[in-house]
Amino acid sequence: MTRKPGTPGISRENRLSDEGLLRLERQLGSGSQISDPVLTQWIRRYGDPARDLIKQYNRYTILIEPDDDRGA
Predict the structure, then answer these.
(1) Which of 17, 35, 61, 71 has the fewest C-beta atoms under 10 angstroms from its C-beta?
(2) Cα–Cα–Cα angle for 51, 57, 62, nearest 5°?
């Protein structure tokens, strides 16, 4: 039996677009329980726009900052 090659997900270029930030806003707005490590990834990828959204939905703490931004 041969394995069918997987189909790729969303390209990095498309992930790093306004569409990605809209997806984050929808998730936060729906009350999804996004884990702190996942919020950290959003900040790492999108920077200040993601951080601002996370703050807007009162999910921000210094603990979700990427290590390099906390001086660790």
Answers:
(1) 71
(2) 45
